[in-house]
Design brief:
- This protein has helices spanning 25-36, 50-56, 69-81; strands spanning 2-8, 14-18, 40-46, 63-66.
- With 84 residues, it is α+β, with helices and mostly antiparallel strands.
- It has one domain.
Amino acid sequence: MKFVVARTFKKNGSAAIAIDAVPSIMGYSEELEQRFGRKIEVLLLSGDSAEALEEAWPEYAPIAVVDNQESFERTIEEKVSRKK
């Protein structure tokens, strides 16, 4: 399964959503980058679950996998505003 992953910085982890849950990956990626600016990096990753993603990409952990765009964007917002 392929995921759109929004990697946050400062060790706050990442948010992921199945690529099938977004209408247009290119348009959505640009929308996210405009909204969150340099606070995130948008990636496409493959994995069967959050655990598989974290195992394959430990530098992006913890990864919160959500099932809809609203939750995805809310999770990104929480992660970029969190202080560590």
